[in-house]
Design brief:
Layout lengths: L11 H25 L3 H26 L1 H21 L4 H24 L6 H54 L10 H18 L3 E8 L2 H8 L1 H18 L6 E6 L2 E7 L3 H18 L14 E8 L7 H17 L5 E3 L5 H10 L1
Parallel strand pairs: 4-5
Antiparallel strand pairs: 1-3, 1-4, 2-3
Helix pairs in contact: 1-2, 2-3, 2-4, 3-4, 3-5, 4-5, 7-8, 8-9
Length: 355
């Protein structure tokens, strides 16, 4: 640890033995502790162990050398004490204890030599003793300030990350939600339908959809105004939400007066039953319809479709089938449920080509 030529020590075998037999093994042990350390306490122990053993060895060698050799040892030791106090990475308490031990050993060796008639080292010892606490105080001040800064930075970063995560979730929810009805919008529907379709395909399970279209909605808006129309949309959305069995699927507003319910694990009979349930619930509620061509209350036409996804089909094919069924329900007089067939895209393209 100290740049001293041990060959100049009067008892150089002792000096070399202390360095190789005690100092080197202790330093290797300290390095091992530091490499495997899981806490600040372990790092403090490693640093204090290496420093204190080195100070003890140098103090012992200085005490047994005398003359210029002892002066070099004590000069190096004093410099190490000052540098250690100013630059060590140990926490303040561990540094204070290490420096206290080193200064006590150092002053003890100098005083012992002064009593033996070698008093020339006393001023340097007084300098080291006086300035090492000052250097340590400056380091502690800087250490504490740095630690506080790092702590506040970590706390600020944690708060920002937490807020960013929350805002990201809220933004994702808002981006996928229709603001008028609180149902999924088209973006939210696509985000739900894609994975649900893929999961049904992997399990060879049914997936169904019911598309609900309010009858004569343009006449409603023309007669009552768009504000009342928005109220009608919200009421129908609430009825659909309340009539869907818990956990059966998700409901979305496609746009305008159209709503769709996507229902995984729902076959043709069940999806037709749910479509009729929705139509009947809205008719029984008897929401007033001011349009002249309407029957006096709000009704809906419902198109349903169900399929087991195959490799050539796409989620949009399910919605198209339900949409075709809605047009069929309207063609037959509205306020009814019609079932559609999900066509195989390859077969459908072949039919169009033949036509």
């Amino acid at each position: 640890m100290a740049p001293i030529d041990y060959a100049e020590h009067p008892a150089w075998p002792l000096a070399l033995g202390l360095r190789l037999g005690i100092l080197f093994p202790i330093q290797l042990l300290a390095i091992g502790i530091a490499c495997r350390a899981r806490s600040h306490a372990a790092l403090d122990l490693a640093g204090a162990l290496s420093f204190c053993v080195a100070m003890a060895v140098i103090t012992l060698l200085a005490s047994t050398a005398g003359g210029e050799t002892a002066t070099r040892y004590l000069t190096v030791q004093g410099g190490l004490i000052l540098v250690y106090g100013a630059l060590t990475g140990q926490r303040p308490l561990a540094t204070l204890l290490s420096i206290g031990f080193a200064v006590a050993a150092y002053d003890g060796a100098v005083i012992a030599m002064a009593e033996a008639g070698e008093e020339g080292r006393l001023p340097y010892a007084a300098f080291v003793t006086a300035f090492s606490p000052g250097f340590l105080a400056v380091r502690i001040l800087l250490f504490d300030r740095t630690e506080r800064t790092h702590f506040l930075h970590r706390q600020l970063q944690a708060c920002l990350n937490r807020d960013l995560t929350r805002l990201t979730r809220e933004l994702a929810t808002l981006a996928g939600t229709d603001p008028l009805t609180g149902l999924l919008n088209r973006r939210g529907l696509d985000a739900y339908l894609g994975p649900a379709w893929a999961a049904a395909g992997e399990r060879c399970a049914w997936i169904g959809a019911a598309l609900v279209d309010i009858d004569y909605f343009k006449a409603f808006n023309d007669a009552a105004g768009h504000e009342a129309g928005d109220g009608c949309l919200g009421a129908v959305a609430g009825l659909i939400r309340s009539e869907i069995p818990l956990g059966i699927g998700r409901t979305a507003r496609l746009g305008g007066e159209e709503f769709v319910v996507v229902m995984p694990d729902t076959g043709p009979e069940r999806v037709l039953e749910i479509g009729e349930r929705l139509r009947d619930a809205i008719e029984r509620t008897a929401l007033p319809h001011p349009g002249r061509c309407a029957p006096g209350h709000v009704t809906v036409s419902v198109g349903v479709a169900s399929t087991i996804p195959c490799a050539t089909a796409r989620p949009a094919d399910l919605l198209r089938a339900a949409d075709r069924a809605v047009y069929e329900a309207k063609r037959q007089g509205r306020n009814r449920v019609s079932a559609g067939l999900v066509r195989d895209p390859d077969v459908h393209r072949a039919d169009l080509s033949a036509a």
